[in-house]
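Sorry to interrupt, but I need a hand with the structure work. Can you supply me with one protein entry, sequence and fold together? No commentary is needed, just the two lines. Leave the record below and I will have a look.
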Amino acid sequence: MKFLVLAAEAPAGDVSLGSGMLGMVLPLGLMLAMIYFLFMRPESKRKKQAAEMLANLQIADEVVTSGGIIGRVIDAKPESDTIVIETGGDKTRIRVLKSCVIENRTIHE
């Protein structure tokens, strides 16, 4: 009963509804901004760096594949999606996808 009395005593021009909506929307907006800056932005930076590394592969670069194979690039054509690497002392040549290369160990100036 007391609840009904308090509700009846509220003035007709009360703006608490608008401030209540702002109180709900503001934390939601802050959470979305945090998700973007903590997860989405760093991931897009990593993808951009990986694409740049793959585009800049040159002959004689030492690379590591996702399967753990370490080798030296022998053939890398820009229009092709594969490269040929040479591994080990017996000069074994392997053709792999560029997308499988996860690291370029050669430092270019």
Observations:
- The two ends are 80 Å apart (CA to CA).
- The chain has two helices and five strands.
